Amino acid sequence: MSSGNNPLLDKIKHSRLSHLSIAITFFVSGLIINSIQLVLHLTLKRANKKLFRQVNWYLNYAIFSQLVFIADWWSASTLKVWMDEDDLKKYDGQENVLLMMNHTYEIDWLSGWQFTEKMRVLGNCKAYAKKVISYVPVIGWAWYFAEFIFLNRSYDKDKEIIDKQLREVYSFPDPVWLLLNAEGTRFTEKKHAASVKFAQEKGMTVLKHHLIPRTKGFTASLPGLREKCDAIYDINLAFKKDAEVAPTISNLLHGYPVQGYMYVRRIPFSSVPEKEEEAAKFLQNLFVEKDNIIDSFHTTGSFFKTSGFKEPPSNYMVPRIYSLVNFIVWALISILPLMYFLIYSLLAANWTGFFIVVSILAAITFMMKKSIGMSKISKASAYGDTVTAPHAKST
What we know:
Order of helices and strands: HHHHEHEHEHEHEHHEHEHEHH
Number of helices: 14
Strand content: 5-15%
C-alpha cells in the first residue's frame, strides 16, 4: 500500500522521525497556545469577553487545523460532500448550527473538522463532551477555554449545565457550530446489539448502522437552542467497507489517503416540535432517515438510490492553504529550538540539558502513542454496552 507515486516521499511519511516531528509540533505548540489562552482567560476575558472570544477563535484554529493538515495535506485524503447548492450559497458558515453526525469511525470527528474548516468555522466549532476530556493537555484544555459543553453523563446534573452553557455558547460574536452525538457513544458491534435489543423491547424501529439516539440530552437543549440556533445540519458520513485504506489516525499519519463521503442536510430549527415528546420523536425519526441514507450507501454505493432523498450537487472539499501555513509556522517554532538545544548540549557536553531534551522527546512520543491508542474503536468507552432502564434518560 503506497501513499503516492513518489517512493522517497512515502519513506518520509512512514518514518518515525516524521511522526515525531508532527507530534512535537502539535504538543509543543499546543502547550504554548494553552498558556496564552490561560493568560487571556484570566485577564482579557474579564475585561472584554467578546474580544477574548474573537482572539480565541484564532488560537483554537491554530491547534485544530494542525489535525486537519494531517488529513488534507500530509495524507492527501479526500472528502466528497453532497449538499443543497442553494443552502450552501445562502448560509455558507454564516449561521448558528447544531450538528447531528453519526459516530461510527475512528476519524469521523476529523472528517467533520475537514468540512467545518472549508466552511471557515473551525475556530468556533464546539461539542457536548465528557467532562474528563477537559483535563487532557492541549485538546482538552483548548476545549475548556473554547467553552465546550462538558457533561457528567447524568441527566439530573447535566440538564442545568446544558441550559446555562448553551446561552454562553450562542452568545459568541461569530457563528457557532455545536456537535451533538445523539447516539451517546461510538458505534461498536457490542453496543449495536444492546441498541437493537432495546429497540425491539420498546417497539421502536431497529437501526442497522446507528445506535438508538438518546433523546433526553436533545430535548433538554431545546430551550437554549431555540433562542439562537438557526438550523440542524444532519451529517451522514461514510467510508467504503472495501476501501484499500481504512479510516484510522495511524493510516493518516503514515500518509495513506482516505476517501470519505458526506451527505449534509440543512433542517431549519423551526421544524423541531415544541413539545418534548414530539421533539424526541423527531430525533428518532431523524435517525431512521439517517440509517436509510447510510444503508443506501453501503448497499448501492450511493446515499440516494434507496434512501428516498433527492441527490444534490457534490463537490470535493479543496484543502485551504491556511492549515498548511499554520502547521509549517508552528513546526519551525516548536522543532528548531529543541533541535538547537539538543545539538548544543551534545557538543558542549551539557548532559543535564541533553537529558532534559531527550526526556521531552520521550514524553511527546508517549503522548503521541497514547493519543493514537485512545482514538481506536477498540479503546472506546463501555458506555452503551448494555441495555439499562435509564437508557432513554441519559444525555
